[in-house]
């Protein structure tokens, strides 16, 4: 039987023993990945972003999070092998999509209020209130204040 264990790249990996509090990349996922602020002294280089996301390299990677709806699939593909940058770009892109009416309708009134508060705060702090407002509520707004990347863990034995 082939060995199916994979190891996450250190930039993406959550140190579970540390409660995922220390990841090499401190990134507010509301912003494009190039805005990531590393938690260590040196910046993450472009060459590190082009490293394989996992070892051994894979062409497709499915990311699951209890913070997002199951319908918000994050599947990262790259025929040359999924890179760290591919993962970050796909997480960001998935969460920038507007929520659809069915998703909104399935949320409680309390969730609506919390999400609207986050949405309006985001509009007021953006460079272009009108543009941000007209783009509507995005998936990222549904995460409320949980917007700092905490790393990934594998579920493959």
From TrEMBL:
Pfam families: DUF6699 (PF20415). InterPro entries: DUF6699 (IPR046522). Residues 25-153 form the DUF6699 domain. It comes from the Eukaryota. This is DUF6699 domain-containing protein. It comes from Pisolithus microcarpus 441.
């Amino acid at each position: 039987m082939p060995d199916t264990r994979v190891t996450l790249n250190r930039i993406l990996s959550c140190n579970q023993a540390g409660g995922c509090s220390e990841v090499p990349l401190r990134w507010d996922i509301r912003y494009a990945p190039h805005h990531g602020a590393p938690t260590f002294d040196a910046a993450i280089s472009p060459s590190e972003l082009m490293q394989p996301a996992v070892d051994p390299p894979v062409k497709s990677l499915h990311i699951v999070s209890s913070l997002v709806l199951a319908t918000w699939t994050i599947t990262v593909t790259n025929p040359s092998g999924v890179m760290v940058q591919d993962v970050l770009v796909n997480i960001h892109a998935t969460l920038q999509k507007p929520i659809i009416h069915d998703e909104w309708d399935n949320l409680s009134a309390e969730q609506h209020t919390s999400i609207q508060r986050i949405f309006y705060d985001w509009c007021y702090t953006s460079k272009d209130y009108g543009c941000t407002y007209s783009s509507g509520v995005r998936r990222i707004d549904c995460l409320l204040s949980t917007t700092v990347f905490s790393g990934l863990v594998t579920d493959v034995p």
